[in-house]
Design goal:
Number of strands of chain B: 16
Helix content of chain A: 25-40%
Shape of chain A: globular
CATH topology of the largest domain in chain A: Pyruvate-ferredoxin Oxidoreductase, domain 3
CATH architecture of the largest domain in chain B: 3-Layer(aba) Sandwich
Number of helices of chain B: 14
Radius of gyration of chain A: 22 Å
CATH class of the largest domain in chain A: Alpha Beta
Order of helices and strands of chain A: EHEEEEHEHHHHHEEHEEHEH
Strand content of chain A: 15-25%
Largest interface: A-B, 16 and 27 residues
CATH architecture of the largest domain in chain A: 3-Layer(aba) Sandwich
CATH class of the largest domain in chain B: Alpha Beta
Helix content of chain B: 40-55%
Largest sheet of chain B: 6 strands, mixed
Number of helices of chain A: 10
Number of strands of chain A: 11
Largest sheet of chain A: 6 strands, mixed
Distance between the termini of chain A: 34 Å
Structural class of chain B: alpha/beta
Structural class of chain A: alpha/beta
Order of helices and strands of chain B: EHEHEHEHHEHEHEEHEHEEHEEHEHEHEH
Oligomer: heterodimer
Strand order of the largest sheet of chain A: 2-3-1-4-5-6
CATH superfamily of the largest domain in chain A: Pyruvate-ferredoxin oxidoreductase, PFOR, domain III
Distance between the termini of chain B: 57 Å
CATH superfamily of the largest domain in chain B: Thiamin diphosphate (ThDP)-binding fold, Pyr/PP domains
Shape of chain B: globular
């Protein structure tokens, strides 16, 4: 069995990518299985999806703890412990990171084990579609290549999965074309079988009663959401062009996350550690004083957790 | 001690009044309405210093009750049947918040078809909700159980909400003498509610029932709820001892009636236990060695007490006043599970379904239950589920069907 785990942010298409890979494997004659896991279903929040395929019936379900291949749709997730990208990764695991950086740079920055390969899929998506979200087919293609699947079942899988999402045939065709470019571009690595860990004896803890102050699902610490930095969710950041701002406060009013505060000169100050990059302020600004700038890896937003 | 004639509903209201609750969200439903009507009157008249609020549904009522309890207020509410089911999802939240309010359910069979009289499919549907459950046989026990319920619920070792159940009509609208406990004694029995994990202060907000994904924290909190519920067995014992000392009445997890030398035992709950006891007396007159076990606390399940009462018997009959369609009696299953590992388990377990929707349980039916159970005990082969339905009931039903179909002639059958 070959096990692929996708990590992405809500809205990036990690689930669709896992389905494209699952369908491509199925159309290749394998037994296949794919499934997503997500929590609050918010755009930008970490999500994961899983694809398994093989010649034998697949008995596992749910999360993949020992992946052969990990596909990371957003490099900013590497620094997010909630995304749990490194779970079960060994030296044999192939890690694909969506990043324009070289694999060696990622390795040095992230200290992840495994064999890393990269491709700037988001740049390709922006170039061809003008949208950062439209990377599911591209990621599916990269995964198919690394998992050793052929082009034709991949083409068909993209058509089926994007068709199910209601995309128009011309858009699906463009996705197929660009996806096959990614399929060709990604640096292939030899598949190495990831050894299943030996059965480790489980030891149990007998639950004991604790006082309701501890034993109730309850949070009494105030203001702790500031600890959860969400700046890494951004692809674009709002940036102020100061001389265009008329101090109307509309950005402050519209910001759904309360990350814009106004200084004494009535100019907005963005808390980039928590701004999720929704760009509502950019759209609402009547004088176009807020503009969207593409985030670059290694800068503040990228390192924010 | 002052004794007076009162219905089960009024006894419930008196229990609430004596418990000096702070907040009562209410929504009417037969046969419960009399409880909240009495409380509304007392709140208006100043006899009870509680805030009484009529809500737009049982779902809102239960939500308000849980939310108020979470602020540290002592809360009471009451419902029945469809109302309990309408509030259902909130029950699980309230127990998860570890909000120890008391809810009275006046048992009424579930629709469809609709009826007003009692069986226990409503309250037993909530058996897995995390609420503790105390089922009462008499009007006095209703009042006393509400006081005990607050004491047990608010104990740091428990902190879970409680349902006190009484049967519609046969207790709710039935008057019998009830002794009113002295309010000062009640204050000794029931200390003020000062929960460490609940409360409301603007300067110290907290979130209850937050999202926990991934399974591990969820399992931890669920385990805590289970352990808290199990703790209630011991806390009930302590509360029962204290209650007996102050008020002279004793309530255990289960009540045995003429069990000492009983070969065969009938297991029963709620108000029908009174008729069951009369049937035991009648059978004893005829020299039959039978006894009765009334389950009072249903959650937590008093497995040890049940095993203690039933081990070594020849045969056990469980009379379920409920029906799980496609399965049988709900309590029968739990009794059977409790006895499986008992070395001296009874030779036969018999399951009877009766008293559905207020259906009569006659002297003859109890006699038949004892006879069939004795036979099963001799043969070593249990029976059931036996759907109790007499020939007279069958005739009545056939006649109704003819009327409904328009086949009954003007001159009779």
């Amino acid at each position: 069995m070959y096990a692929v785990r996708f990590h992405g942010r809500g809205g990036q298409g990690a689930k669709t990518a896992s389905r494209i890979l699952g369908t491509a494997a199925f159309l290749s004659g394998y037994l296949a299985q794919d499934s997503p896991i997500y929590g609050a279903e918010r755009r930008g929040a970490p999500v994961a999806a899983f694809t398994r395929f093989g010649r034998e019936p697949i008995r596992e379900r749910g999360g993949i703890t020992h992946p052969d291949l990990v596909v990371v749709a957003d490099a900013s997730l590497i620094g997010d412990p909630a995304a749990r990208i490194s779970d079960g990764i060994t030296e044999q695991t192939i890690l694909f990171i969506n990043s324009p950086l070289y694999a060696e740079q990622i390795r040095t920055q992230s200290k992840l084990p495994g064999r890393i390969t990269t491709l700037g899929v988001t740049e390709i998506a922006l170039q061809h579609f003008g949208q950062r979200e439209a990377i599911s087919a591209l990621l599916g293609a990269v995964a198919a290549r690394l998992a050793g699947l052929q082009q034709e079942p991949l083409r068909q899988a993209i058509a089926r999965e994007l068709g199910d999402l209601g995309l128009a045939p011309p858009i699906i065709e463009r996705n197929q074309t660009v996806a096959l470019t990614c399929y060709e571009s990604v640096q292939v690595m030899e598949r190495e079988s990831v050894a299943e860990p030996a059965n480790i004896a489980t030891t149990f803890h007998t639950p004991v009663y604790e006082s309701p102050s501890r034993g109730t699902a309850r949070i009494s610490a105030t203001g702790n959401s500031v600890l959860r930095e969400t700046g890494g969710w951004r692809t674009f950041r709002p940036v102020l062009v100061a001389d265009k701002c008329n101090g109307c406060w509309l950005c402050f009013v519209y910001c759904p996350d309360g990350v814009i505060s106004m200084n004494k000169d009535d100019r907005p100050v963005v808390d980039y550690a928590h701004c999720k990059g929704c760009q509502i302020c950019v759209h609402e600004c009547p004088t176009h004083a807020l503009v969207a700038e593409r985030e670059q890896e290694g800068r503040v937003a990228w390192t924010a957790r | 001690m002052d004794s007076q004639m009162m219905t089960g509903n009024l006894a419930a209201a008196w229990g609430v009044r004596l418990a000096d609750v702070d907040y009562i969200p209410a929504f009417p439903i037969t046969p419960q309405t009399e409880i909240v009507e009495a409380l509304a009157k007392w709140c208006e008249g100043g006899e009870l210093a509680a805030r009484f609020v009529t809500m737009d549904s049982e779902h809102s009522m239960m939500t308000a009750a849980g939310a108020a309890e979470a602020t540290g207020a002592r809360v009471f509410t009451a419902t029945s049947s469809q109302g309990l089911l309408y509030a259902f999802e909130v029950l699980y939240s309230v127990s998860g918040w570890r909000a120890p309010l008391v809810l009275v359910n006046v048992s009424r069979a579930l629709a469809a078809p609709i009826t007003l009289e009692s069986d226990h499919n409503d309250v037993l549907a909530a058996r897995d909700s995390g609420f503790l459950q105390i089922h009462a046989e008499t009007c006095q026990e209703v009042l006393d159980s509400i006081l005990m319920a607050y004491r047990i619920a608010e104990d740091e070792r428990v902190m879970l909400p409680v349902i006190v159940n009484l049967d519609g009509f046969s207790l709710s609208f039935t008057r019998e003498p009830v002794s009113l406990p002295d309010p000062e004694q009640v204050q000794k029995f029931l200390p003020p509610f000062r929960p460490a994990h609940l409360g409301f202060k603007a300067s110290a907000p907290h979130a209850l029932g937050v999202a926990v994904l991934g399974g591990t924290p969820y399992a931890y909190f669920r385990h805590q709820q289970h352990l808290a519920s199990i703790n209630a067995l011991e806390v009930h014992r302590e509360a029962a001892a204290s209650f007996e000392q102050l008020f002279g009445r004793r309530y255990d997890l289960v009540e045995g009636y003429r069990l000492d030398d009983a070969e065969d035992v009938l297991v029963i709950t709620n108000a029908s236990a009174s008729a069951g006891k009369a049937a035991v007396d009648a059978a004893r007159e005829e020299g039959k060695r039978v006894g009765l076990l009334r389950l009072r606390m249903i959650r937590p399940w008093p497995a040890d007490a049940i095993r203690g009462a039933l081990r070594g018997r020849r045969a056990v009959a469980v009379l379920d006043q409920n029906l799980a369609p496609g399965q049988g009696g709900i309590l029968f299953q739990e009794i059977a599970a409790s006895l499986y590992h008992e070395a001296e388990r009874p030779r036969a377990l018999c399951s009877f379904i009766g008293g559905l929707g207020g259906q009569n349980l006659s002297v003859g039916e109890f006699r038949a239950i004892f006879e069939q159970t004795a036979k099963a005990g001799v043969s070593g082969k249990g029976i059931g589920p036996v759907l109790l339905y007499t020939q007279a009931e069958h005739r009545e039903m056939t006649q109704l069907q003819m009327v409904a179909a328009g086949t009954q002639r003007a001159n009779g059958l």
